[in-house]
Amino acid sequence: MQHGHMSQVGYDTYCKLLDEVIKEMKGIQIEEEQDIQIEINISSYIPDTYIENSSQKIEIYQDIALCRNEEDIINITDEIIDRYGAMPKEVENLIEIARIKNLAKNVGIIKILQKQENVIFYYEPSKFEMKMVDMLIQKYKNRIKFSPAHEPYITYKILKQNSILEEIKDFLQEK
Predict the structure, then answer these.
(1) How large is the average pLDDT for residues 135-155?
(2) Taking the domains of the chain in order of start, what are their residue ranges?
(3) What is the largest CA-CA distance in the chain?
(4) Whether residue 163 has pLDDT greater than 90
(5) What's the rounded Cα separation, in Å, for the pair 150 and 87?
(6) Higher pLDDT, 74 or 35
(7) CB contact at 8 A, 79 and 29
């Protein structure tokens, strides 16, 4: 493993690049995909106490990073539990973040950032729909703020920090 290269580009990007190289070598057409950036205050990793072998850990990280739909997520979750037993909370969070990335991609969100009790959803401008803002304001009232900047974004006030992943998933499924 080229650890220096991985730390320069980030793990998800590294896995994506590795997957693209393998597909290119096999002659498989690669479709360009927007990488969703997620920065939230939650522990999401594979603890050494759960998977000690670093190459197995890298394989699982890569499998999670390459999930493209709910079926992929269910399959990798089942595989992890079959191979290593019940998942610790940090691994469950990692899986939920993969799920959130897929939901975000489906509604045109390119970045999700947490700032204290707020989560900010940045949209791909060409995929942003104003009617969605009206619907969200009706449902969430004063917990929603909208900014029509160059990269339009919606700020959403979370209710409980300990359920942030569930709140983000619920919010993304409103679209």
Answers:
(1) 88
(2) 1-33, 34-60+68-172
(3) 51
(4) no
(5) 40
(6) 74
(7) no
CATH code: domain 34-60+68-172 is 3.90.1150.50
In the numeric block, the tokens 């730390």 are attached to 7
CB atoms within 10 A of CB 18: 17
Phi, psi (degrees; rounded to nearest 5) at 120: -110, 125
Out of 21-30, 42-51, 118-127, 154-163, least confident range: 21-30
Angle CA(141)–CA(145)–CA(151) in degrees, nearest 5?
145
Specify the length of the chain in residues: 175
Is residue 48 within 8 A of residue 101, CB to CB? The reply is: no
What is the predicted pLDDT for the residue at 31? 59
163 contact partners, CB below 8 Å, separation of at least 6: none
2-27 pLDDT, tens digit each: 444 444 446 666 676 777 777 778 87
- 5/11 Cα distance (integer angstroms): 10
DSSP H or E segment with residue 20 = helix 11-25
Residue in the structure block whose two tokens are 């959403």: 156
Token pair 């590795």: residue:
18
Give CA–CA dist 49/123, Å, rounded. 38
For residue 88, give the DSSP letter. Answer: P
pTM: 0.77
pLDDT at 95: 95
